[in-house]
Amino acid sequence: MFDPKPIPNRAGAGFKGEHFADIAKSEAEVGFFEVHAENYMGEGGMPHRILTAIRERYPLSVHGVGLSIGADRPLDAEHLMRLKAVVDRYQPGLVSEHLAWSTHDTSFFNDLLPVPYTEETLRRVVEHIDQVQEALGRQMLLENPSTYVAFEQSTMREVDFIREIQKRAGCGLLLDVNNVHVSATNQKYDAREYLHDFPTEFVGEIHLGGHAIDSDDNGDVLLIDAHDRAVSDPVWALYEDTVKRIGARPTLIEWDNDVPEWPVLKSDVDAAEAILRAVERKSHAA
């Protein structure tokens, strides 16, 4: 059994098994690693042996992608217990999930789908977060989504919806800056204004990732939250502006598709680390 190890205000990487040899050989200088909980819900085998070796040397964050907190149905109790088993086994510094849904009746969708921002949805999401936090015996972080269209039935802004969830459920927040850029571009609002309105005092972790550029039926730019490339310049700019304003936070580089060699991923981790250290130096000087 591991002792709890907090996540430092440093840059980390999403852990991929194919990088383990390079990480072990180089004793990689990163603040922490993050894994998707669903990849470790089996009882044992090589994935657990590798993750155990990682956890012995680095702080760990566990990020869920399948709990379907926004679904219009009860949480999957069995899935929640499997998540609890992973959390109990590795004692991560942070546990997070998405403001999204991926289940309906007996179907599971391999995607993170958005929710309408209504009072009904708000009550349901808060109830689900309460269940998760009670089952885990700890606070969870909720991640803002990437969206492509707005629901006509929404009655509040996304940032106000998230603020109210935090107030009622007492959860922390995971601020995905790439998601903000994707959503703001697709729905034509100001990403910096969104970030200034976001309840950043509750942010326990920041995510950065890459997005693909496409176009919609009208020929307008459409960004896809693809996690298949390096962080873009506009996202770096938003990130730097945010941490200058709110201070350093644990920052994860996500790269889940078309995963590159470890040095390529590490270069984005190093870029985030450089921004964090610069912010801290200016803070200390002030």
Account of the protein in words:
Helices cover 42% and strands 19% of the residues. The protein is α/β, with parallel strands linked by helices. The strands form three sheets. It has an eight-stranded parallel barrel, surrounded by four helices. Strand 10 and strand 11 form a beta hairpin. The radius of gyration is 18 Å and the shape is globular. Mean pLDDT is 93; it is low at 103-110.
Write the layout of secondary structure elements.
Elements: E1 11-14, H1 20-26, E2 33-36, H2 46-57, E3 60-63, H3 77-90, E4 94-98, E5 101-104, E6 107-113, H4 119-136, E7 141-143, H5 158-169, E8 172-176, H6 177-187, H7 191-197, E9 203-209, E10 212-215, E11 221-224, H8 233-246, E12 251-254, H9 262-285
Parallel strand pairs: 1-2, 1-12, 2-3, 3-4, 4-7, 7-8, 8-9, 9-12
Antiparallel strand pairs: 5-6, 10-11
Helix pairs in contact: 4-5, 8-9
Helix content: 40-55%
Cα radius of gyration in angstroms: 18 Å
Largest sheet: 8 strands, parallel, barrel
Helical segment count: 9
What's the average pLDDT?
Answer: 93
Strand content: 15-25%
Number of strands: 12
Poorly predicted tracts of residues: 103-110
Topology pattern, helix = H, strand = E: EHEHEHEEEHEHEHHEEEHEH
The geometry reads as globular
- What distance lies between the first and last C-alpha atoms, to the nearest angstrom? 42 Å
User: Biggest sheet: strands side by side, in what order?
Assistant: 1-2-3-4-7-8-9-12
Features of this protein?
two-stranded antiparallel ribbon; single chain; 19% strand; alpha/beta; 286 residues
Give me a quick take on this structure:
The protein has 286 residues and is of the alpha/beta class. It contains nine helices and twelve strands. The strands form three sheets. Strands 1-2-3-4-7-8-9-12 form an eight-stranded parallel barrel, surrounded by four helices.
